[in-house]
Amino acid sequence: MTEIMLDVRNLVKEFTVQSAGGSVMRAVDDVSFTVFEGEALGLVGESGSGKSTTARCVLRLIEPTDGEVFFRGKDVVSMNRRELKAFRREAQLIFQDPYSSLDPKMRVGDIIAEGIHIHQPRTSKDDLLAEMRRLIDLVGLREDHLNRFPESFSGGERQRIGIARALAVGPKLLVCDEPVASLDVSIQAQVLNLFQELKERLGLTILFIAHDLATVRHLCQRVAVMEQGCLREIGSRDDVYHNPTHPYTKSLMAAVPEPDPVTEREKVQKRLRDKKREAE
């Protein structure tokens, strides 16, 4: 039986909006889901739906207002500083923007080694160098890239560096916060393929956040759909794609482009016919 790696229960996050007279905004509203060991779960929804806030609460980068988060049965919300450090070695975040998430003043090798220095400070120089070489090769870059600065790389290459940095501490869970959203479509496919390869090769568990269903189609076994801070629907990839139950999910599905132009044209025509019937 597959073990549950991440168990999120009734998660709530509220913010006080000073510009609105101190009113309280609920960004995450009673969200519950599980992520099984070895799977990739896609968390999708439009901008502002609460996806990234949920991810940051799960990792305790921000404190949840209410609810529970369990990682391999351990209560993340009540962890002390020492326990939280150990948890963050096992659960790493991949950022959305590969341009702002890398320190421009650090060489790539130092960026990748940073987590090792924090979590494995007794690593020898020879072992550290060997590990940096292994990681840079793992994400499809070259050893000579270790001595260069981030400005020398494209967006897709920078995201690969960010992935190598996250993998340096040997995590079991990757939380990917829209990691391909700022990349060109052709580069998106390459990075998604890399995630798939790493998942299979390293046995990773992935919580993959995206704003459209097309991005998670080939990577994720299950899909959870968020809107206005609420979880509207969760199910297998086939169920969500081919038989969505919530109106919001149906609207997201209608916006997913089909690679076949004939199929896409038929879908658009069907959507127009449905709208016409609703108007009548």
UniProtKB/TrEMBL annotation:
Chain residue ranges for the region called Disordered: 251-280
Gene3D superfamilies found in the cross-reference section: P-loop containing nucleotide triphosphate hydrolases
One GO MF term:
ATP binding
Q: Which UniProt keywords apply?
A: ATP-binding, Nucleotide-binding, Transport
- Could you mention a single GO BP entry for this protein? peptide transport
Q: What is this protein called?
A: Peptide/nickel ABC transporter ATP-binding protein
- Pfam families in the record, alphabetically? ABC_tran, oligo_HPY
Q: Where is the composition biased (Basic and acidic residues)?
A: 262-280
Q: Which PANTHER family match?
A: D,D-DIPEPTIDE TRANSPORT ATP-BINDING PROTEIN DDPF-RELATED, TRANSPORT ATP-BINDING PROTEIN
